[in-house]
Every structure is written in C-alpha cells, then in structure tokens.
Write a structure and sequence with these properties.
42% of the residues lie in helices and 18% in strands. Keywords: ATP-binding, Nucleotide-binding.
C-alpha cells in the first residue's frame, strides 16, 4: 500500500496486516487521524477486489446512504468498502442485520476519522464482529524505507540492539524529525508559513467536521485552546483541573473536551501499567499529542528557538522527544510480530518509565526517553524498580537518548540512541 509523501511513494507497513486481517474477520474497521492514508488503503483494497468505495465524506453520497442504509449494506460487493462510516450511524445497524444472516469473513471494510470505541452505537451494533486497527501518521521507518523491528528485538533479545559503531544521527537531525512529524501533506510544504497554515486548517477541519459531529459544543472556540494546553503538556499525566483553571471552565467539562479531542485523534492516551506493584503506583494515564509536528506548531517550537538554547523551549522539546518516541513505538506495535500492550509506569515518589511493553505471553520491557546526549544513574531508577519487582518476566529496560553510543548499563538494562527505534544496528 502506498501514500504520497515528500514527492515519492511511501509503503505503509500496516498494509500486509490489513490484508491478512480482512481475510479473517467479517468487518475490518480502519480508523485514525485525517489525512494519514486511510482512504488510500481502502482504495487499494477495493481495487484488489474490483469493487467501488462508498465515500461518506461526499455529501450527496452521505444523503443517499442515510436514506436507505440497508440497501448499501446489502450490496453484493465483496467487500463492501465504506469511507468515513461514522457519518451515517444507522449504517452499522444495517450491517449488523446483514451479519445476522451471513458472517463470512471479508464482507466489510470501513474507515473512519473518529475512534471506533467513542461511538456507543457502533460498539452496540458490531460487538464481537469487527476487528479494529489504527493507521497513524507516517513512521520514521516508512519515511526511510525500513520496516522497524525494535519492539520484537527488545522482547526477544535486547542485546541485538547494541552496536560497536556509533550512531551518525546528529541532534539537529533529531530536531528536524521531531518538528516535521509524520503527517504526509505538510512534509510536502517548504515554507514555514505554509506549514503553520496547514496545521491551523487541519485543527479547524477536525474540530468542525468530526468533533462537532460527535458532540455539540456550546463554546466551540474553547476546543483549540484546550488542545494548545494539551500540546504544552504532551507526555504528561492528565491534569484537567490545571487546564480548567487556565481556561476558566469546570474541570469536568474540560475532561469531557479532552475525551472529545481524543475521539478525533488529536491526542491519545497511554494508560498506567496495570500490575499492582504497590499502593504508591499512579493510575492516571499519560496524554500525548498524536503528532509532534502538530504539537510543535501549536507550541511555536522552531529550529531557531531550539538553537537559542532557551530553557523553556528546551523543556518543551524534551516533552516532544518523549511523545515522538512513544508515537513511533505505538505505530510499530501495529505490525510487530508479538502482540503487545503499551502503558506507562509512575510512582508517587517520581520513579517512572515512559513506556512499558507487555507481550501476550507475559514478557515485559521498559523504555525511558531522554532528550539529551548522555545518561546518568538517575535515568534508570524506574527501570531498576520494575526489573527488581517483576523478576524474570522483565526481559529488558532501555534508556533511549540523543547520544551516539549503545551499551549495556547493568543486568537487562541498556542504553541506545533514539534512531535505533527505526534503524537496525550496523
């Protein structure tokens, strides 16, 4: 599967997984942010089966399907391919009725820019019959033509991540990658002003065409403001009360707005690690912006500001680097050989691990991200705690940083450059 980006064709690593899952389930739902390539994947699927796509983003088509959803759900096409399905919720009831008669795999492929589980009617209609996958913005491996295997290597034998050769990726190159993000369209734009305008228009489009379709918001202007506050807190524990105080709204309403922004893929959450290690382990999720290019634009972080070494900008960049690394691994989890759950770990006395990776066979690894070129003993506190508490089920802990060297720090604990997330060790 391909999408356009940087004036060349980019293979999406999720495409083989999509084709395999489509062949094994009655309904495949592919959701994700706008403009990341869902429609392109759907068109490729339709072409492979010589069928047409019903695009509900097109208003006349949407009206036609709304008038008679059962007619479209009963189409003899195999599969029935529907883009932006969330615009006609009764269509899901019609699909359910069809599946009551015929549950053969490969009947429907649906794409949407709203989270599947954010629409109650969807979960009620197709519970147990739909397999949901998420297509995220482009990964660094997709941009560089490599299929990333970091998660599989981390869980199988983290020593394979080590290399005698130093990384050649400079800090400036990392800054460029983080601030570019993974949305295909703005990567085509050369002028900074054009990029800013694209992201501004993107936020408004998602809010007006997706968020307000889910829930009518009395104060629409507040949503972009809440989003900017979330960008300033990316890679942080969700604190609705702090944002509520700054925007002068009730904390419960702000929490509801955050959920709404999550539903349309502007932010996403990483839940707390589920094992009960002690009563002092935090349970709140961490929130991340869906893309660091978007977050950087909302914060006004630029290469010029980073070059000035302004402390506040460097702090913001540190959060962006963590979100960048977490997002890369979230993307990679979609095609990793091992099925993994991703979470974060944090104790009330500030021992933390940015990402905990748990495979379905019980293997656990931890990843801590640092936006600096060297590592200290303090950076391993959370990983050591997990290792010592979990015993043999903890297979590896890695501190990812902007330095050039990879090495073994301690038993099952390692240091690797950030680019190892997408580049194999030489």
């Amino acid at each position: 599967m391909t999408v356009e980006g940087e004036r060349r064709v980019i293979d999406r690593h999720l495409w083989p997984v999509v084709t395999q899952r489509h062949a094994s389930v009655p309904v495949l739902v592919l959701n994700g942010p706008r403009t990341v390539g869902k429609s392109t994947l759907l068109a490729a699927c339709a072409k492979a089966h010589d069928v047409l796509v019903t695009d509900l983003d097109d208003l006349p088509t949407r009206r036609s399907v709304s008038d008679d959803p059962s007619y479209f759900a009963a189409s003899p096409s195999r599969p029935v391919c529907i883009d932006e399905y969330q615009y006609v919720p009764p269509l899901l009831d019609a699909i359910k009725a069809e599946l009551n008669q015929d549950t053969r795999p490969g009947r429907y492929v649906l794409t949407g820019s709203t989270r599947y589980d954010s629409l109650p009617r969807v979960s009620q209609s197709l519970a147990g019959r739909a397999h949901v996958m998420t297509l995220w913005p482009l990964s660094q491996g997709e941009l560089t033509g490599r299929k990333e295997t970091f998660l599989d290597m981390l869980l199988s034998d983290a020593r394979d991540l080590m290399s005698h050769e130093p990384s050649t990726t400079s800090r400036e190159a990392y800054e460029e990658a983080v601030l570019a993000g993974g949305f295909p369209m703005p990567r085509l734009l050369k002028e900074a002003a054009d990029k800013r305008r694209w992201f501004y228009d993107y936020v408004n489009t998602v809010i007006d065409r997706d968020a307000l379709e889910i829930r009518r918001v009395r104060q629409r202007r507040v949503l972009p403001l809440v989003l900017r506050h979330l960008a300033a807190r990316t890679a942080s524990i969700m604190q609705a009360t702090d944002i509520a105080r700054r925007v002068e709204l009730d904390a419960r309403l702000v929490a509801d707005y955050v959920t709404l922004l999550e539903s349309v893929f502007l932010v996403h959450r990483i839940d707390a690690f589920g094992r009960t290690l002690s009563a002092r382990v935090g349970k709140a999720p961490k929130l991340h912006m869906v893309d660091t290019g978007l977050a950087g634009q909302l914060l006004g972080v630029t290469p010029h500001k980073l070059a000035s070494r302004d402390p506040s900008t460097l702090t913001e960049f540190g959060h962006l680097v963590e979100t960048f690394a977490v997002n890369e691994l979230v993307k990679q989890s979609g095609w990793a050989e091992a099925h993994v759950d991703l979470s974060h770990f944090r104790t009330k006395d500030q021992h933390e691990v940015d990402l905990v990776v748990e495979s379905d066979d019980g293997r656990i690894a931890g990843i801590e991200v640092k936006a600096k070129g060297s590592v200290t003993d303090k950076d391993f506190r959370g990983l050591k705690l997990l290792r010592d508490r979990l015993g043999t089920s903890f297979v590896a802990g890695v501190v990812v940083n902007l330095g050039t060297r990879s090495y073994r720090y301690d038993e099952r604990l390692y240091v690797v450059p950030l680019d190892r997330l997408w580049m194999p060790a030489p």
